[in-house]
Write the structure tokens for this entry.
Amino acid sequence: MQSIKDRVAIVGMGCTQFGELWDKDYKDLMVDACYEAFEDAGIEPKDIQAAWYGSRESGFTGAHLANALKLEYIPVSRVENFCAGGTDTFRNACYGVVSGACDIALACGVEKTKDHMGGFTMNVTTPFDRSMAEWDLPPVSQFAQLATRYFYHYGLSYEQGRRILSKISVKNHHNGTLSPKAHFHREITLEQAMNSPMISYPLNLFDACGMSDGGAAAIITTPEIAKSMRKDYILVKALALTNGGGQATLQQEYDFIHIPESVAAGKAAYEQAGIKNPREEINIAIVHDCFTITELLIYEDLEFSPRGKGPEDVEAGTFELTGKLPVNTDGGLKCFGHPLSASGLRMIYEVYKQLQGKAGPRQLKKVDLGLVHNVGGINGLFNCAVAIFGKP
Amino acid sequence: MVGITSYGAYVPLYRLSREAIAKGARGEKAIGNFDEDSLTMAVAASCDCLIGVERETVDGLYLATTTLPYKEKLGAAIVAMASDLRPDIFTADFAHSLRAGTSALMAAVDAVKAGSAKKVMVAAADCRLGIPGSAFEQNFADGGGALLIGDSDVIASIEASYSVYNEILDVWRAEGDTFVRSWEDRFSATYGYLEAMRQAVSGVMKKSGFSPADFAKVVLYTPDARRGMELAGSLGFDVKTQLQDPLFAGMGNTGAAFSLMLLVAALETAKAGERILFASYGNGSDAFVLQVTKQIGKIKARRGIKGHLEPKKVITDYKKYLTWRGLLAWEDIPGPIRFLSAPAAWREREANLRLRGVKCQVCGTIQFPPQRVCTKCHTKDKFESYRLSDKKATIFTFAMDYVTPAPDLPTVTSTIDFEGGGRLQCYLTDREPEQVKCGLPVEMSFRKIIDKEGAHIYSWKSVPVRT
């Protein structure tokens, strides 16, 4: 098994405005995201030799991307892996380049969630089991079960737990105000976050990310070609993907205070990138805060905080813009919004811009290594993608 | 000797204060939760009755109700499946009549007498609706009763029976009716209930050669709290000492299940050697003479009527009751059910209806739903079937959804760990939000999962242990 480290480069990226884009369809988002990426890379659509397209709901085959961009009979694969779909799309495109099957590849993720009943409301469990006998509720209850057990396991009172989760929300809302393409640009107070309406106990409105429309795209090539295209190309240092096998409900040992898929993906990625101490070595992490509890668990699962000590780091401001390891500098899913298969590529976009020093008002001082993390699915059946990026 | 070898009952946890229906009305009536119906209550009564019984020995299941969820489709098959009975047994629905409970009982007794079955389960449940605000609505209640009929280990033998029919338009529900209709009470009672019951009860006493003084208890169906007393008195029984309390103060008239449930209540306090007279009503009457045996002392503990009546939650919100019964609209998610699949439901019937998981024959890990490859030792296809529906469990973690439309928010989801192994994610029902916590002891209850567009999807939910 070989590491992907330094064998693929990003030479261009694009990201649409995220939000309730009633006036745009998924093809508009494909065009907007991809043409920004083409322009950024200084290439034409005809330069693309192969493409990978990520979506859960919008445009079911690769042909839809070819149609929107008028790609001329090149291979386009569609990738679907729930909330990890965007990063997985990128991952597949990287392997296409590394294999030599193509020199310049496009990875694009687009989702029109708002055309479907205000997001994806129900049927989260049922794609796995179509008899409808299983419980079927929006994803929040899956993640709320993690919060319930986390509070219980570490002896946090409801108020103590809510305070920690709310601080994560306040942080991401602040970062969102510095992120023009984000869905939400509004500061919130700790009190607002703590007292907002309950969605699924113990999570409330401000624990949940926005459901948005959006798209993002990346142009991937070899480091050799990248060097000839621009100075500030970005190198892929690691690509990891893990999938759960249903352990959460098949084994009583599954503890609901961590997500094993995240732990395994983190370990695999760190090994590829040669990272020994993630907390010290990583400068920015854009992670899957579909709910605040998910972000809290990720701190511990990706070894940013020792197990059970995530709350202490939240209180210390470790993950704020000014902290030791800023997390979700662009507002995260919470404020940037979460068009499922576009999210992974949006996260890569932020790390890419930060590594290039082009992140505007939220630009961090020192960025040498950045991490992207997605997790999607239900307890026991999560898909988790972790990718790490660095400068040449 | 043919008779009752086991009994069980189910009264829903919830009671509606009759004051909520009509000012000044007294007592409470038992009402099913929004996810309960006649089938789920029949399953609960049947499972209560199966305590201490080898399920493999049951040769038939007769379901009795006037409120089947389907117009064409066997209810008894769902009840037999959820009761985890053998697939090669005789099943039948006894429906469309208040007397369905004793019709099924009569058929079960005859089947055992004829030798075509050794043990037959009679499970009756009803969930009838009276017009909002009416006397029927005050009296009607939801519940179920079950009797296991057999010819060995009999706790109450059936010594004699006598039936009459009477054709009269007294109480009825026509095609398309939601509510039960009736003619003027005095006419209905005089020429319907009282006349038919007198004939049947007198008939069975005459046939068996007994007089009222020979009975320790008389168990009579009654449409309301009063008529049964009038009937018993007129037949020469002592209302105070002999008549079984019709449970109107705390339960109410449970339709086709009512006479069976009152009989279960009588059996709970019966002593060996006592004689019981028992009669039902519905366009006629079936009357029985029962002789209680010594075996009654050996029956295993169960909730029955008493154990279900005492633990209760009284609600006073009439709107909530109407919503639960589907009489008041609630804001559901628009659009049709997506992904409904009859083949998938059929393939998963062992898991969804029987709540059967598997136990790995190599490493012993209990897993739900059934797997092909073991989650622990990865052995392929070496499992034995494992029943979870009768196991106790505790809540490992939970969530309470306050937003997704449902008839009764919050919708609680639980991840539960079974005693002896096995984990399940399922809804938690019959719960007070403030009582839900990690470590809460729960047990399993068969409920409706989806009731929409003519589809009734049933499976198991967890409920806090009822004490």
The radius of gyration of chain B is 22 Å. The first helix of chain B runs from residue 38 to 49. Chain B has a mean pLDDT of 96. Residues 273 and 279 of chain B are 20 Å apart (CA to CA).
